[in-house]
Amino acid sequence: MAKTFTPLHDRILVRRIEEGETLRGGIIIPDSAKEKPQQGEVVSVGKGKSNDEGKVFPLDVKAGDQILFGKYSGTEIKLDGEEFLIMREEEVLGILK
């Protein structure tokens, strides 16, 4: 990525991890019919969520973590021709180790 992007507050920037080409009964499924993967890699994270008193709580996820997220989570964006998701940390279902 030529530009650096830092999400604000409790948001994270995620790159989807594409699965291999799926074959079902010898038929190759076209990209338009495939479900988008629900697994991704965290590219960058915001500083954290703040409460009413202004205290900032750091996020549990960090750049480089592999995560699982819900099917309709996040907002799709394009940066330098590459597709990413921006989502809140609360939309993350878990961290893969």
Describe this structure in words.
This protein is mainly beta. Helices cover 0% and strands 43% of the residues. The chain has a six-stranded antiparallel sheet, with no helix packed on it. A hairpin with a 2-residue loop joins strand 8 and strand 9 (82-88).
Average pLDDT score = 81
Strand elements, count: 10
* Helix-strand topology string: EEEEEEEEEE
Largest sheet: 6 strands, antiparallel
* Class inferred from helices and paired strands: mainly beta
Strand order of the largest sheet: 8-9-1-4-7-10
Low-confidence stretches: none
How would you describe the shape?
Answer: elongated
Helix content estimate:
under 10%
Distance between the termini: 25 Å
Number of helices: 0
**Strand content range:** 35-45%
Spatial extent as radius of gyration: 16 Å
